[in-house]
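Work Package 3 committed the consortium to producing structural models of liganded targets before the mid-term review. Because experimental data for this complex are still outstanding, the team generated a predictive model from sequence and the ligand definition alone, so that downstream docking and mutagenesis planning could proceed in parallel. The input record is reproduced below exactly as it was submitted to the modelling pipeline, together with the SMILES string for zinc ion.
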Amino acid sequence: MSTGASVAVSSPSPPCAKCGMQVPTTFVTFHQNIGMLVMRQTAHVSGYLCRRCATAYFKEYTLTTLLAGWWGMISFFVTPCYLINNLWELRKAQRLPVPPVLPVSPEMPVNIPFGERSQPIDAGSRKSKLINGAVIFSVVVGVGLVTTFVEKHRVAALTGCLMMASCTQSESLRTGALYSVSSETGAFGIAKILVLEPGVVHVKIYKQTFPTRPKSIDPASLTLGDMGDPDGFSIEHLPLARQVFLSWDPVFISRQNVSDAELEGYKMWKEARGGVFSVDPRPIIKSNVPRR
Ligand SMILES: [Zn+2]
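The resulting structure, written out as tokens with the ligand in place, is given here.
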């Protein structure tokens, strides 16, 4: 079941470590750097990948590095090396034939991260999401630094309150559960818990909003839009510090299954050793995603 990118099965062409398809693959390594002035966060992925999956990783890691990689002494010098490496690895992948269009044959192992999506991987919407993601990273890093230096004690007091709240409410969080959550506009949204980890809540946020807190909801009526969708903010996967999620006043509605497809974003986050939002990312995301 691993989506691990370090899978090597048999030569000459092991199946793609990401999508599991038995198509020509090549061994590639992509690096990502996020510069945070005094710190840096790096991630890499390596394994036998098909052309489509390698291209997807290239875009994700390279765009993030391109936008958020430069901020810092070491980062400034590491970033061009990573970019050159990623371009070099992409060239290797581009020598492979284009794999057939997903979804793949039904006897294929279930691990089909992108196959559930209706659009091919190169579609503009995914690309724009990646760019948005990179912008969010930069903004959150900036916001994090400002709060650290300017509002240190205020943040500490707030965190204390929220931690107390998390102690009293922690039992109520359940994987797969739908919650009504409050937003800064006074409306209510719906969030689903995909995964619970110590101190971290991985949620999906639907685009539907309600003027009053809904008591029940038909899960089939819930949908995701684009991040810049004027209808409402939605996102497939958002890793939140537990206290941030609890600050949204979540109220349990009902419990659902969590499908493999829903865990795709979480798996990618895990592989990339992604970060966790310790401030409410919604206003930042909203104000930084271009409207269409
Ligand atoms: Zn693949």
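Reviewers should note the following from the model. Residues 153-288 form one domain. These observations will guide the Year 2 experiments.
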